Amino acid sequence: TNIKFDTSALKQFVDENELKEIKPMLNTARDELLNGTGVESEMRQWMTLPIDYDKEEFSRIKQAANKIQSDSKILVVIGIGGSYLGAKMALDFLHDNFYESADSNKYPKVVFAGNSISGSYVNDLIKLIGDKDFSVNVISKSGTTTEPSIAFRIFRQLLINKYGKDEANQRIYVTTDAKNGALRQEVNENNYESFVIPNGIGGRYSVLSAVGLLPIAASGADIDQLMKGAADAQKHYMDTSLEDNGALQYAAYRNILYRKGYTNEILENYEPNLRFLAEWWKQLAGETEGKSNKGIYPSSANFSTDLHSLGQYIQQGMRNLMETVVRIEEPQSDIKIPVTGNNNDGIQYLEGKSMNYVNDKAFQSVIIAHTNGGVPNMVVNLKDQSEYSLGELIYFFEFAIAVSGYLNGINPFNQPGVEDYKSNMFALLGKPGYEDLKNKIEKDM
Ligand code: PA5
Question: What is the ipTM score, two decimals?
């Protein structure tokens, strides 16, 4: 596999015996996942998706991506939460750091909307589009989520104003439920090209469905390789036992640590275009595990940047932290530090060395420092930033976090807590049906 999970820095924190102790419980959780004997087992369709996906739809996704590449300079991807983070994470991970501002002739710039309620953001995006040709991919399983619904209205109107209704309809790609919801109804009425978010796949597990695949393919990335990496990972992580299975080991160790009071996990990287990998992972872990008044709190840091800010807390703050580093073994490129013969800044000794060499020494030094400071460290070594490796990494985390959920006795596939604020917001906005709540809130204010 392209992933090597390394726990060598955990020696002072976890006893071998503790791994032995948790193994039977871990295996039970794994078996619940594999055999479908755990709660809400119908939501495990992501588990076999890399192999059992809709091949006809997959080729339509590629055709749609080709059409977008041929007639659009910009693709506006509208969605939030699980209908946003996977594609954003993958695009950043696979392309160079300034991809979004590169004016490439071959591939459209992929931008995101409907992931906040900021009017300024939408105005800025409209300005960015200017008179450029563009298309829209709206992604929503329910079809009624407030943020993407607002954005879709705005950008559909923009398309209609620019191209007229008929051509606008050809530039709208809808990813939603197969049968239900407002968006499916609009697909039927307007003949939009459409793709399916399968019933048995929740938002945070959906990146390898059309939700992630269309934006990723439109950006010029190779979705065949992405699926191949995930398919190989599926076979490996479903079939091997703890001793050879990095995903199970990750689930085991983070839960051993959690039970000893390390309740906050920081996902870290040393490559700026992995920032959204952590954002995606935070939703995956946080929505899966944070319920019944328990769960590891997922957070993130970007190194070496945050070593100059959060680094202080990690080194000496409250000792409830654990760190998981995603380390890229072969970064996308490298550059040498020029030889100048000048030592005013005290770094002449680094002249002629490569930046990746220095970055790696930073990585090693931080592990030693933080471990000595009382923070357990785990490392996910990933070979490179190819589509294949990303496919494997996605599966690694999805599998590990789902097992982790069953291990903690919660439902890994629901997210009831994200609904609570919405009723209040609907009441305050005056949505029909929320009058009583509105009165109650206003009386209490
Ligand atoms: O994981 C989840 O369920 C959420 O993050 C959803 O993905 C998010 O709210 C978007 O929902 P929808 O796709 O229905 O618009």
Answer: 0.95
